[in-house]
Amino acid sequence: MSFDHRRATTRLTVLDVDGSPLSDTDVALEQRSHQFAFGNIGFDFIPLANGENETPSRRDGFASESTEGLAGLADLWLDVFNTATLPFYWRIFEPVEGAPDTKRLRAAAAWFAERGVTVKGHPLTWHTLAPEWLGDKAEDEIEALQRGRIRRDVADFAGLIDTWDAINEVVIMPEFTAEQNGISRLAKKIGRVPIVRLAFEEARQTNPSATLILNDFDLSPAYERLIEDVLDAGIRVDAIGLQTHMHQGYWGEETMLRMVDRFARFGLPLHLTETTLVSGHTMPPEIVDLNDYQIPSWPSTPEGEARQADEIERHYRSLVGHPAVQAITYWGITDDGAWLGAPAGLVRSDGTPKPSYDALKSLIKGEWWLPRTEVRTDSDGTVPLSGFFGEYTVQAKGKTATVSLASGVDEAVVRLA
């Protein structure tokens, strides 16, 4: 499998502080970030970012029951991932109308940003976890409230969060019957494409530079038809979101890449927005709605952990090897508080990394990473720099410069400072 579409080789000219070529000099090159978005959810660290680490809290829906060990868990998270998804489930974010949890989520977004992590919000519009206070409001009022919610939150977080799942799971939205909610009623009244337009246009007008994603778990032809209708309607979509919760077992490279190819035909970047692989027994195949599988205990096992590690490596290799894929977000760093109680985390509940964590780290910060490397410039002050697209540091004589490797950049010049 080739990763050449993710790599570049640049003839790098290093200038001294006075602007002259730094000839015949030892310099150190080192990667500092990936351009590719290697993501995970950041829900667990909202209490830590807000100084709540002495008080257990499940206020954020999927946060763990205990906040002990969050600092160590954060170190493991930050050592691998560069993109964090934060929860904006409307029912949880604004349980009382007019009282959103903006301060806490801004603190969490800032905590990640200060550590060089790109932050994404999930989601702006979704029928599940719609506020109960929407209740029996008329659809026109629900629409006005939804529009206002989008404008408020996109504006409040601009600069900290500039990537959003603008709308989530539209394919099922008008037909969702598991619980009564105002958003499904609105979608049924106005239709799928109009509610997509609502979400994207309100967010776009509020933050024109935002990256807005259409996200769904239904990867059937129905989602393809929706995308076609949305694009035909002139709605600008920045990326297509594809959920791949594999609680029933790894799909395998062939199936996964066939699916990716179907959505790559739209010519838009693909974000694998929600990925899971379990390290215990797999969910029975006859389960249609994953939420229906509720069991008292779902333990991680040594055999399952070995399988998960192998599948994680295969999964990431195949997707990073596909040129249309721009981002992969794994859905959970730890088993503690994981969705459906599944052992889908990369870290056990006791805080120890599973083999899957080590396997993924060995790719992102190993095989696909340039460690500190000593080289010597030639008489013109140049050195070759090869690696995955991303940011690199150049150090010499106690000074530092930064350079980006990107597609089509064959030459670059940096000046030490």
UniProtKB/TrEMBL annotation:
Name of this protein: Beta-xylanase
Organism: Mycetocola zhujimingii
Enzyme class per UniProt: hydrolase
Family: Belongs to the glycosyl hydrolase 10 (cellulase F) family.
Pfam families: Glyco_hydro_10
E.C. number(s) listed in UniProt: 3.2.1.8
Enzymatic reactions: Endohydrolysis of (1->4)-beta-D-xylosidic linkages in xylans
Biological processes, Gene Ontology terms: xylan catabolic process
InterPro entries, per the entry: GH (IPR017853), GH10 (IPR044846), GH10_dom (IPR001000)
Keywords: Carbohydrate metabolism, Glycosidase, Hydrolase, Polysaccharide degradation, Signal, Xylan degradation
MF-aspect GO terms: endo-1,4-beta-xylanase activity
Coiled coil: none
Domain GH10: 52-363
